[in-house]
């Protein structure tokens, strides 16, 4: 059975909640895998050495050597390392941290996992939807690399995620046709549609990347066209 | 090149309900499908492009027949229909959402279904995807320039717009009818439409548009099992009147001609963009 671990670094547990929010599908997922480590769902203290898939949630606090060691250890132990959620994929709200916060005021530097170690897949979104987590785990179990390709690409280049992507990559390239997929995907309602184009409130954007990941005018994998 | 994408069968049809036909653009297929869906319980919420102030288009979640009827008709300007998709599920609590959109919007919702990163618990609530034939669209201010500068009708006075017989038509609330040659509207199209290779909403469950059918009728492509089941339910309920597509004029030949001309022209534009280093959706 495929061994899967869920590991957390600097995060809010939202991705784990999203994983469990799959309801009955969670049972299918758990039935298809051997969950070898998960702080909330399994009573295990150490991440085992040989894991097939590690879902790592959260960003890496560069001012904390434990976090760096965990990130490196997960890379070594995992056949497939998945940056789960926006903090791990692109930094998300931890991008705005500049120290001073309780209870560790000296923790002032946070980087997404994708910038610290090489990740195989990254699932952005704050949190990513349960459906997308299940789809990625299922595709990874089946070795469906065609489906996973966009997630593999985000693991390599996904670290700039924010509403500005829409302006730079889509509107400035005369590709936006005003469908509104970005506005609906935004978890904080930072994206609104004005005159058929997204307007981004930078005060509210948390850099989760959901808007640009959801945009069909950046990435439109061919397999989407297989509708039946 | 395959002009229409995959489909099970095509027909020509119109809504049997006079009230729908009076308000709708052509055969009233989208309104008829939505109203049948809401009344039969196949759908509990539908996304429409409603008429806002000064004839702008505003996406809206409609849950009643009146709301569907008041939104009927084509606006020829951008209506970000996907932007209200999540609120249909969250705020309106809909479990069976009907969606209608242009081919690009249908592509967008298909991407959402396959890669639903930011759409928690939305994919399984999409009950029907309808697509409308589309050659290109205008930004609101582009449409405004066409209607106010070229046709001399104020946006606040517009009752209906239409495209047909090589012309863009504007009907005012006071009975004026003005036209502009379609080729004179090209400068006001949004450029992003020129990378689109899809005329007939190839990824929809059901696609519809006026082209190919006589005035007051619509051409329909049934593409998926879901689309077929919904179409059959409409047919059985008698909400649409049907003709064999081979028996109507001008028929599928004209749809094919237009679909191919969109693919040819935009294929060239895509090649040009590639040549000068501009990105394309990949």
UniProtKB/TrEMBL annotation, chain A:
Assigned protein family: Belongs to the FrhG family.
Stated name of the protein: Coenzyme F420 hydrogenase subunit gamma
A Pfam family reported for this protein in Swiss-Prot or TrEMBL: Fer4
GO molecular function, one term: iron-sulfur cluster binding
Membrane-spanning segments: none
4Fe-4S ferredoxin-type domain location: 167-196, 197-226
NCBIfam families: FrhG
Record-listed E.C. numbers: 1.12.98.1
Keywords: Oxidoreductase
From TrEMBL, chain B:
Domain Coenzyme F420 hydrogenase/dehydrogenase beta subunit N-terminal: 11-86
Compositional bias per record (Basic and acidic residues), positions renumbered to this chain: 263-276
Enzyme nomenclature, EC number: 1.12.98.1
Ranges where the record places region Disordered: 263-282
TM stretches of this protein: none
Record-annotated Coenzyme F420 hydrogenase/dehydrogenase beta subunit C-terminal domain positions: 95-247
Source domain of life: Archaea
The entry's keywords: Iron, Iron-sulfur, Metal-binding, Oxidoreductase
Group of enzyme by EC: oxidoreductase
Cofactor(s), by name: FAD
UniProt GO molecular function: coenzyme F420 hydrogenase activity; flavin adenine dinucleotide binding; iron-sulfur cluster binding; nickel cation binding; oxidoreductase activity, acting on CH or CH2 groups, with an iron-sulfur protein as acceptor
Family matches, as Pfam families: FrhB_FdhB_C, FrhB_FdhB_N
Similarity comment: Belongs to the FrhB family.
Name recorded for this polypeptide: Coenzyme F420 hydrogenase subunit beta
Species annotation: Methanococcus voltae
Taxonomic placement: Archaea, Methanobacteriati, Methanobacteriota, Methanomada group, Methanococci
């Amino acid at each position: 059975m495929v061994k899967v671990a869920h590991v957390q670094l600097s995060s809010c547990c939202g991705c784990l909640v999203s994983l469990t929010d799959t309801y009955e599908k969670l049972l299918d997922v758990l039935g298809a895998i051997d969950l070898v480590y998960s702080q909330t769902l399994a009573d295990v203290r150490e991440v085992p050495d040989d894991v097939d898939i590690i879902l790592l949630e959260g960003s890496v606090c560069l001012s904390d050597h434990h976090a760096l060691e965990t990130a490196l250890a997960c890379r070594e132990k995992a056949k497939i390392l998945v940056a789960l959620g926006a903090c791990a994929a692109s930094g998300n709200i931890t991008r705005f941290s500049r120290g001073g916060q309780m209870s560790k005021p000296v923790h002032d530097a946070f980087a997404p996992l994708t910038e610290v170690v090489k990740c195989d897949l990254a699932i952005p979104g704050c949190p990513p939807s349960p459906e997308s987590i299940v789809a990625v785990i299922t595709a990874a179990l089946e070795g469906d690399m065609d489906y996973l390709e966009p997630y593999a690409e985000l693991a390599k280049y996904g670290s700039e995620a924010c509403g500005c992507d829409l302006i730079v990559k889509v509107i400035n390239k005369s590709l936006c046709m005003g469908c509104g997929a970005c506005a609906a995907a935004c978890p904080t309602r930072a994206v609104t549609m004005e005159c058929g184009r997204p307007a981004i409130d930078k005060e509210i954007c948390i850099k989760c990347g959901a808007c640009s990941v959801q945009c069909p005018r950046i990435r439109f994998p061919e397999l989407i066209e297989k509708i039946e | 090149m395959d002009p229409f994408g995959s489909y099970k069968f095509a027909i020509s049809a119109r809504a049997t309900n006079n009230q729908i036909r009076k308000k709708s653009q052509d055969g009233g297929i989208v309104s008829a499908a939505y109203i049948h869906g809401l009344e039969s319980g196949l759908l509990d919420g539908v996304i429409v492009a409603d008429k806002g102030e000064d004839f702008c288009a505003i996406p809206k979640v409609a849950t009643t027949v009146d709301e569907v009827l008041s939104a009927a008709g084509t606006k020829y300007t951008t209506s970000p229909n996907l932007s209200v998709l999540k609120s249909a599920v969250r705020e309106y609590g809909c479990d069976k959402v009907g969606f209608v959109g242009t081919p690009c919007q249908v592509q967008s919702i298909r991407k959402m279904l396959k890669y639903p990163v930011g759409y928690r618990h939305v994919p399984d609530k999409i009950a029907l995807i309808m697509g409308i034939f589309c050659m290109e669209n205008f930004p609101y201010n582009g449409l405004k320039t066409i209607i106010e500068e070229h046709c001399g009708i104020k946006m606040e006075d517009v009752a209906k717009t239409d495209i047909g017989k090589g012309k863009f038509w504007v009907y005012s609330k006071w009975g004026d009818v003005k036209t502009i040659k379609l080729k004179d509207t090209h400068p006001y199209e949004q450029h992003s439409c020129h990378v689109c290779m899809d005329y007939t909403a190839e990824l929809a469950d059901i696609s519809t548009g006026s082209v190919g059918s006589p005035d007051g009728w619509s051409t329909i492509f049934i593409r998926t099992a879901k689309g077929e089941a919904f179409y059959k339910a409409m047919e059985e309920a008698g909400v649409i009147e049907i003709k064999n597509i081979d028996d109507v004029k001008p028929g599928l030949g004209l749809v094919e001609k237009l679909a191919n001309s969109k693919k040819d022209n935009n294929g060239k534009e895509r090649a040009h963009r590639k040549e000068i280093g501009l990105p394309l959706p990949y």
